[in-house]
Specification:
2 copies of one chain form a homodimer. Chain A has helices at about 5-25, 45-60, 70-75, 95, 145-160, 180-190, 205-215, 220-225, 240-255, 275-295, 320-340, 355-370, 390-410, 420-425, 435-440, 460-465, 470-485, 490-505; strands at about 30-35, 65, 80-85, 85-90, 105, 115-120, 120-125, 135, 140-145, 230-235, 240, 255-265, 300-305, 305-310, 315-320, 340-345, 375, 385, 390. With about 525 residues, chain A is of the alpha/beta class. In chain A, β18 (about 385) and β19 (about 390) form a beta hairpin. At the A-B interface, α2, α10, β15, α11 and α12 of A face α2, α10, β15, α11 and α12 of B.
């Protein structure tokens, strides 16, 4: 980066920020505020059992880092027993190493009004992450493309209930594997001004993502603030491979965020019984968080969890199941004990289409994560088919439900107005309340209004074309894309990003798998 | 009833019960056991505010009984202030009058193995109540008939997760209004051996329902046991009409059960703000329960609640909304304070078809009722279109989800097996757990297995015909009806029931509205 360029950019950014501040009309919340209690499934005694079991796993079974000498050395220097690839922790040591990780942290967006906060009673919501396929009602199921990626980022940008545009909203398989991260990160920056995640598929791609964030935010700002995150999956059971630990280290070294997520289907990547899986996941997450703190104390780490069941006869993952619901509630309690921001849940489903199964499983996956106190849910919109597919219509339906969760998070306020004192004084028994002054006064604020549910009479619904929820959602996302307005960006930054991408792409041959 | 007939019947019934006892192979639970905590939304202070507000409503606004001198006199004799139709209660008096109602009670089925228990940590589940229309995937939406009624009772009988066959599973509009209760009660008795509800549409129809129960259970047994219930809706706001109070009195007088349910769409039948609606509903329910106890102390009464929102622009009822979710959680707390068995919730939806909206709203209606500690949910299967329609496919999908709730109610057991101690000892990091002995030992019991979810790969799903959830459910209910086996019934009782119905029908002209 030349000095000239930097100068031009910095000036441009300041001007940009000023103009944004002037015109800011912020309707969308920066996060969901949860004013209702978390659900406490397990007793203190049961939680201690799981905690002790996690410690036993780390001491007796151990956890391995494959192909990462640096990580092994860091742990060894911190007093962990290292034998070959395997780490063994004394009781309580792993959680001790997590203590420098912040309980709460701000994650900055390029539009300051979109910056969000992780932790406490806040919930940050983002869309699907990872699907190689996309689905829409008209074109059906097909491989994801960069055009789909942009569309999904645009929708995530527009939806007020999504505070974060997540990361790989779909795999753009029309772009070479070794180059697509550049286009993906660019799309997040260009088509939205919300926080987002960078690449983790190779340490150098993580570095590229961070470099692009440096171009947007400036070196100095980035050095002391979280502006980009890496989504780190543990290779459960009890393994970190060097792709994941490499990406983890890249983000932590730059003082950027990571989300540490054991990916567990009970019975395969953990024992089949959920308490075992919860303990194992707890052990795995703590070790990942510990590594971030050994690399850079005080860097931000989210305690993540992806834990569900499988059909033990076919091996297929299953979602919204009672066992996964209970497990999610328990994991939330474990995360709160550790005091770290907690990621879990999503609108998960195994369904192939946007049908009754899809939303039943999604609701049953999301509700427990919400009540478990999740601080980050980044698979909150679009999931179909166990995450292999992101559906445009599902994206809309899920997002509408996120609006409902915002309202639910507000809880119930008990006061003279909400108790309807004046309404009861106005009306006698048997009289309808629609016409009361109290109803008029509370008309606008009383109820969340879904954008997509059809509550009309059968006759009206029939007259409107007998549309099911998927069809209404299809119309909605098409209208939204028509109405999309690109958030302003300093042309100098845009140019610099494009230059960086061009140079990077020119330096590599295409790789397709 | 002649002495001869009674003799024949009584002998027959004893023989019948003996043979049933011998061959009893009970797989279906009598109720769902909730071993997980209820969710506590509001603080003690907030609950006291609502309780005091309910008392204020009963004291200052009052509640009316229309056309029921007996009820007015009973309350007056109990010390309630009566002015015209209106009752005004001193603070705390209504709840005081509820104190003789049982906290728990057994409801007997004609098959003793199907008898269930209301209250405590138990949840009794029953299907839809009241829809004039039915829907199935092949024939579409149409008026309900007696054939549909029988089909739905048969399905409810077969589904292990329904413990009760509810009441008017659909309105059989092909039978005259003044006679259909006879055929409905007969269908419940004949095609299932689970507990059920009788008619409430007129006091004499309630009496007929009770008479039919007497034929089945015998006078003496009925006199001291709950074998039939009446579903009493309050004419909210703050009115009981004499149809409802008449039916209430008929059931209570016979020592049978009632479920007292304010039917409230916030903004119409109550103030638009939910805390007001919760307080009003609490007031209304207490007065209904009080009347049962003035008629017959110790008779069983369920604290019911039907409280949801409406689209304030169109007036259409809305379901699974965040406001109704919160309200349901709060009502549960109020019911627990009063200590009565609590009815709320159901798989509610405004959707016209068995689509994504239908199951999203249903899950979001049911989950809070479950966590609110509901003891009875009798709209748990089949609802579509705000209860105007019962859907055959929805019936199946909802019931499958009830199975999941049973498993969720079991909670998580933390012990050496569930913590997977042996599995962790058997495996090293990175090794799949499918082949461990621990997985084998827990294979059958680890996970609830849905009968209807499709968790297969896209390719397998496509090969199976690309069926959505509704289509799979359509096949399932058709297969079930093909496989239905009528539960045995003493022919003498059957004959006596038919005689009663014949005589009753012959005594009336047909009424069609």
């Amino acid at each position: 980066m030349t000095d000239h360029k930097r100068k031009r950019r910095e000036g441009g950014r300041s001007a940009k920020i000023a103009s944004r501040k002037k015109s800011a009309q912020i309707e969308a919340p920066r996060f969901l505020s949860r004013k209702i209690p978390c659900y406490e499934l397990l007793s203190e005694e049961e939680l201690v059992s799981i905690e002790e079991h996690a410690d036993w796993i780390l001491q007796e079974v151990g956890i391995e880092f494959w192909g990462d000498e640096e990580a092994l050395k860091l742990f060894k220097d911190a007093g962990v027993t290292v034998k070959g690839n395997r780490l063994q922790f004394d009781k309580g040591h792993a959680s001790e190493l997590c203590k420098t990780a912040p309980k709460e942290f701000e994650m900055h967006a390029r539009n300051p009004a979109r910056s969000t906060i992780f932790g406490g009673n806040r919930l940050v919501l983002g869309p699907a992450y990872g699907p190689p396929f996309v689905y829409d009602r008209k074109r059906g199921r097909r491989q994801g493309t960069m055009e789909d990626f942009r569309n999904l980022v645009k929708l995530a940008h527009m939806i007020p209930w999504l505070h974060h545009t997540s990361g790989t909203v779909c795999e753009p398989v029309d772009i070479p594997v070794n180059k697509r991260h550049l286009d993906m990160v660019y799309a997040h920056i260009k088509y939205s001004d919300k926080p987002f995640m960078g690449a983790v598929t190779a340490p150098e791609r993580a570095e590229d993502s961070i470099t692009m964030a440096r171009i947007v935010f400036g070196n100095e700002f980035l050095e002391s603030n979280c502006v980009i995150q890496g989504n780190i999956n543990v290779n459960s059971p009890l393994v970190y491979d060097n792709t994941m630990s490499g990406a983890l280290k890249a983000y932590a070294r730059a003082n950027q965020g990571v989300v540490i997520t054991p990916f567990i289907l009970g019975g395969a990547m953990s024992p089949v019984t959920m308490p075992a899986a919860v303990a194992q996941a707890h052990a795995e997450t703590m070790v990942g968080v510990a590594l971030t703190q050994l690399i850079r104390p005080g860097s931000s780490a989210v305690y993540g969890n992806f834990l569900t069941t499988m059909d033990l006869k076919s091996g297929a993952p299953t979602f919204g199941t009672p066992e996964s619901t209970l497990a999610t509630l328990a994991v939330g309690q474990m995360a709160r004990r550790l005091g770290l921001p907690f990621r879990a849940g999503g609108h998960y489903t195994a369904s192939k289409v946007t049908d009754a199964q899809a939303m039943q499983e999604s609701a049953d996956s999301m509700f427990p994560a919400f009540l478990a106190g999740a601080n980050f849910i980044h698979q909150a919109a679009g999931w179909l088919e166990g995450g292999l597919v992101v559906g445009y219509e599902k994206f809309i339906l899920d997002s509408d439900r996120l609006g409902m969760l915002h309202r639910m998070g507000d809880g119930m306020t008990i006061n003279e107005n909400s108790l309807g004192l004046s309404a009861f004084k106005e009306n006698s028994p048997g009289e309808n309340f629609l016409g009361t002054e109290h109803t008029g006064e509370n008309f606008e604020t009383a109820n969340f209004r879904s954008e997509i549910a059809d509550n009309n009479s059968f006759e009206q619904w029939e007259e409107d074309g007998s549309k099911d929820a998927e069809e209404r959602a299809y119309e909605r996302w098409n209208t939204m894309l028509d109405e999309y307005i690109e958030p302003p960006m300093d042309p100098a930054i845009d140019e610099e990003l494009k230059d960086f991408i061009r140079l990077k792409k020119d330096s590599m041959d295409d790789e397709w798998y």
